[in-house]
Amino acid sequence: MKIQGQNIFEEFLKVPKLDEMKNILCVQPHPDDVDLSIGGIVAKLTQMGAKITYVTVTDGSAGTLDESIMGSKLSSIRKREQEEAAKILGVSELIWLDFEDLGSYTVEEVRVKIVEIIREKKPDAVLTVDPFLPYEAHPDHTKCGLATAQAVLFYRLPKILGGSCEKTVKIIGFFNSSKPNTIFELTEEDFQRKMKALSCHRSQFDEGTLQMIASYFTIRSQIYKTNHAVETLKILPPIALHVFPEVEQL
Ligand SMILES: [Zn+2]
């Protein structure tokens, strides 16, 4: 859809390129979400020298059909898996917020933790799941995306934590977005690193599932008419996160 004055808004809401960012915070609901959705982008950015920190909101304790490992046992397994995958992708640091997977924690509780981390780490870009994805039914995903977007909107306000801080966040990028505005064609090397990282999440992906994932990202290359596997983001400036109806189309 072409909206009237779109070019004017694009100019007004112009953002720097993600690959110019040097200090990037990736906030995910569960261990594996970033690797699954944008592991190739992470591989590319770390290769280019960016420092990437993962923040995982939940403890990942519910992601199983096997009741005997559900809970703290699975949580420890998934943390080890994420550590292993992070090494492959060149991720510098892992922060765990340890909210209960599928628990009754609130967006506000997560938001204050993310504000604390933004103030400490001073990222120039923050990436997270798109909480506005139509039909997204997983509450950990909607809460994580909303809490992170709100933290990017409010991190400088004394209301949240007292005091204030300098403005550092230049862009917010949403993965799993139904309205992506930035397409990343992965090199074969970055795609293979992503798949290798995903294979570390053994508690989540068996061989058949890994093959399905590889096919999905490759089929996307036909949708976007490229010869490479594709990952996407909706990248916005923080100012776009409040009272801009046109942002959906940008
Ligand atoms: Zn998840």
UniProtKB/TrEMBL annotation:
Q: Which InterPro entries match?
A: GlcNAc_PI_deacetylase-related, LmbE-like_dom_sf
Q: Which N-terminal stretch is annotated as signal sequence?
A: none
Q: Which domain of life is it from?
A: Bacteria
Kindly give the Pfam families that the UniProt entry links to this protein. Answer: PIG-L (PF02585)
GO function terms (MF aspect): hydrolase activity, acting on carbon-nitrogen (but not peptide) bonds, in linear amides
Listed PANTHER family: N-ACETYLGLUCOSAMINYL-PHOSPHATIDYLINOSITOL DE-N-ACETYLASE, N-ACETYLGLUCOSAMINYL-PHOSPHATIDYLINOSITOL DE-N-ACETYLASE-RELATED
How is this protein named in the record? LmbE family protein
Q: Which organism is it from?
A: Pseudothermotoga thermarum DSM 5069
